[in-house]
Amino acid sequence: MNAPFTPNHRLPDPCIEVLDERFLALRLLSGTVERLATGFYWAEGPVWFGDGRYLLFSDIPNNRILRWDDADGHLSEFRAPSNHANGLARDTAGRLLACEHGTRRVTRTEYDGRLTVLAERYKGKRLNSPNDIVCEQRNGAVWFTDPPFGILGWWEGEPATPELPHGVYRIDPISGELTMALEDLQGSNGLAFNPDETVMYVVESRAKPHRVIWAYDVAGDKLVNKRLFASADGPGAFDGIAVDVQGNVWCGFGSDGSLAAKPEELDGVRVYDPQGRALAQIHLPERCANVCFGGPKRNRLFMAASHSLYALYVNTRGAVA
Question: Where are the domains of the chain?
Answer without folding.
Answer: 16-313
